[in-house]
Amino acid sequence: MLKKLFQTYSWKKSRKIKVIEEREYASRKDLHVKIIKLLTTLYFEEPVGNIKKYVEKCIHDRERRKIYVLMVDQQVCGVAIFNIIQGTIASLMEIVVHPRGKGYGTMFLEMLKERFRREGIIRITIPVIASNEEVKYFYLKNGFKKTVYGGMELDLEKCAPNCC
What we know:
Elements: H1 2-13, E1 17-21, H2 28-42, H3 48-60, E2 65-72, E3 75-85, E4 89-97, H4 104-119, E5 123-126, H5 133-141, E6 145-146, E7 152-155
Helix pairs in contact: 2-3
């Protein structure tokens, strides 16, 4: 595991891994198709048409929603969708990476934390956590704390960069 993360961090330094906002991608129509494909791996029982409508809704609501994309060697390998609340809270709606098990999820989340700090976001919230223990463990190991409402949150002001 440490070897994978070390390799991932060195890729980050060499600019082979980056996080961009959806509107920064050159061929946005092509990107939207890739986002839909990634989300179908998360919601495989949901009709593709519903996922497409959801992505379109997120794209058209740029004031409140932001879509971030993980790029690895110029390939789309992850997507995260957030609701931005009062300009300072990022509420995670969706996050998915492919392939799994290579440390990309952790790296994606770490890079999003860095970006949010620069943009003035002070907290990341996850409104609801599924009963999946693997998912819970992922967020806990990345510094999130359980809330009394059944979700999780991370206070970016209280944790140092690369430490939570």
